[in-house]
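Dissemination and training. As part of the outreach component of the grant, students in the summer workshop were shown how a complex can be specified as a set of sequence lines and then modelled as a single object. The example used during the hands-on session is reproduced here so that future cohorts can follow it. Participants entered these lines:
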Amino acid sequence: MNRSFIARNPSVLIFLSILALFTLLVTLLSEGFGAGLVSTSMVKTLGKTLCLCLIAVAMDLIWGYTGILSLGHFAFFGLGGYMIGMWLMFERTRQIVVTSLSEGVLPPTPEDIQAAIGNQIFGVVGSSEFPLIWMFADSLVLQLAFVVLVPGALAFVFGWLAFRSRVTGVYLSILTQAMTLGLSLYLFQNASGLRGNNGLSGLQNLPGVTAPQSVVSLWFFWASALALALGYLLVAWVVSGKFGSVIRGIRDNEARVRFLGYSVESYKLAVFTLTACISGIAGALYYPQAGIINPAEVAPIASIYLAVWVAIGGRGRLYGAVIGTALVSLVSSWFTGGQAPDVNLGFYTIKWVDWWLVLLGLSFVLVTLYAPRGIGGLFDLVARKNPGEGP
Amino acid sequence: MKSLFLALLSAVLLTTAAPAMAGTVQEVLQDQRALIEKSSRRTVGPAIDALVMSDLPQMQAVLEAWQAKEMWQRKEDGWFFAASKNADGTYVLHRFEDGTKVGDYAKGALKQLKPNSGVRAMIATALVQYQLSDPDINKRTGALDSIARDPEAALLAPLRASIPGETDPGVLSRKTRLERLMSMAYDTDIAVRVTAINDMSGDLGVDFRATLNPILTTKTTILAVGQTTDATTDANVARVLLPGSETLSTQAAYALLVAADLAPAELTQDARDAALEANIEAGRVGGFPVAQLGTQAKRDAAYDALVAADLAAPRITAEDIAASLASYQFREIYQEPSQAVTDVAAAALAKSEGRVAVNQAVDLGLDALSLASIYFLAAIGLAITFGVMGVINMAHGEFIMMGAYTGYVVQMFIANHTLSILVAVPLAFAVTFAAGVALERLVIRWLAHRPLETLLATFGVSIALQQLAKNIFGTQARPLTAPAWLDGTWVINDVVAISSIRIAIFILALLFLGLFLFIMKRTRLGLETRAVTQTPRMAASMGINPDRVNMLTFGLGSGIAGIAGVAIGLFAKVTSEMGGDYIVQSFMTVVVGGVGNIWGTLAGAMMIGGFQKGVEWLNPSNTLAAQTYMIVFIIIFIQFRPRGIIALKGRAAGD
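and obtained this result:
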């Protein structure tokens, strides 16, 4: 099965080879292990971009292949980040606290340590009590499991409710948008137990690791590349078999698939939950590289941008999602980071920091109108054939 | 008039105090010279009292001069005069008695009296008695404000005395009310106080409740069991507290005993750890190595070992606590000694609070209605484009923003706020109508029957417009000032009040509802729109141009969004991101209400507004929580009525 699956999808092999080459190249040029041509912050940016590509692959599965435009997948991404962030923050604070408390005359009791950690972490929101949701924050294994389980559970419950009552199309999009807005508003409260609008910070420091950031950033870069490779393989495998045919059928004509006897709701729910889990993993890898996570990350706009990336890259083809995401997010950070040269028109100077979003918005309209297959469609023009994946 | 007041005042003062010594103003001042010269908040009281008691008509002027630092002392004999500065730097002195000029003096021959702020406040209180009957109405209301802010028993009599001479009905009613309130708290006759409280029982005023609350304050006292001769035994007992009950936990009761030095303090963890640290010998405490003391159990054991070795005080056990508590009684005692007063006060307060709760519910209802009309305004344009045409317009929020900025720009050119609003409303409609028509022609028309693509394309328009607005107007919030006649608040009573602007928005929402119904049911455009909505091809066969109808409908929906923007901008700040604040709620309103039905949008707005205000009422400090719960509620609501409150027949909740 696996062999024939790879054989039937040469693009998967090509993509994986390019990803491996790219990873190797970045490593060899990095400050940590190589020539030092690629700065540590650049490595982090590239690592984060790989994570965004991973969630874009998930988005492509749910939107490009199943036809469900979810405008809430960044909720799962953020939840994954929060889950790993809780452990990172707890463990690092615990080490600092234990060091400072052990200077006392009596050795610290577990209660002392717990209280001091609580004070450190929740002091900013005027509390020192550990909320219930931090119960397992001391366990890396459990929090790693939560990275998958919590977004998965939220997606399962939400999807079960929504698909069961046959909410489809734009209604579902708006409902998913409401979900991520609700989550973001909830997290903004101090009472949510996740430090309100302060979010979780200091995530770039791995507890117990003394290696410099230039090395740690590469570890995360590799992990992100590996996760993207595995996620890409998994999704490519999912869409290649009979399951893939059924979900494409749902995208193209839901009623007909239902009449053929398939349980459309179960398929949708399975895809929705799977993509949420993948998004959670992507978030768990993204935020330790970003260093901080706060509720603004799960605001509705983030998920809409995700849809924009996938649409520009080309829906219904996984490499399209990856290309679109990598291109738009990197170009975005180039333009908004102030590195792009301003254009002097004589009567007016175009500052890209100000005008980039206008350009992006308009180009997005143009892509939707005139190039619905996105950048990936260019490959069709070159290859002069339809791979059978397009919308 | 003034002499009448003074006669009354003196009559009151004479009945409450010993007759004042006769004499001139200067004699009275000289009597109190030492206190006046070295005035401080603690010592000056008797001097001010003496000035007031002297009952001289000029004393108001003296006190005012003193307060304004215009009273000077002549160094040669220490006499007090009113002084004002001449152009050549010398000072001219006037006698207080008759205002006659004494002469010009150089500054060196005089000493200015400079009362500090504490003393000035005391002078102000003394002046209140004069000001209560001052011919200037502003001084009278100022005096009432000062009494209401800081009531004192001594001010009750002058207040009562000033009532018969009051001519202004507004001030009179304030005086009467204040007199009733002060009677409750300060009258010496209990029957008068009880009557005053009963008269106002159930009143909604904050001042009424603020007067009753101090009467009903209690403190918890401790009484040894069997003790009967104590002074507190015949106190006005509110209730007896049982330790270990809900009102007084065992711990709190014991803490009270400890605080009153009636029982030894419990051993805290800090005290235990301090004892352990004090007894470390050669790395061991009570036989335990220090390194092992990393748990509470070990530390307790070590401390017990110290106790056994007589190195530390024994612990207080639960039995000790129970025994201590058993020998005392805990009672809540009113500060107010009269039981008759506290009984009626408690009843009156309960009645007031009951009525306040009812009125708060009314107020909440008004708030919910006002929020609902804002949601309705924001959503009605969307109800047209989304509900009637089935087009998702993510740029709808930006049309709202465009309308608000139109209002702001108009205001920059037209200074008169009323006129500028009257110009802004049609202009905002025109601008957003044009934008809507352009969007429909350039983008949406080409994406017909592809709703998800429409959503994404209009989102692109949305981010472009938002950034464009940011580039033009900057990131800071721009004010859109409401005309003065919309600035006020309609106050129904102390609890229920609604600002005029919210009333205006409510009326605007009603107008739009009527306008929408009129267009849809009574005009040619409405008829054609409904026809195109139902079956576009059939409508086209009947000679209706669907393209034109769609364009006009979309323009209409966008134009209404622009007017809503002006209305929203009036009470919220105008920013480039304001559209985003309303877009999700607007979609919710339309979806919850039921697509394609204006009554559904109205019902959706009412439900969302009501629900949000309801949650805010349960948890007033947290509006974020209210929004979160609202969204969860909507998600669940959609499960049960996927087509909204009012569902059109024959139409799925999708596509």
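The first strand of chain B starts at residue 71 and ends at 74. Students were then asked to discuss how this feature might be tested experimentally.
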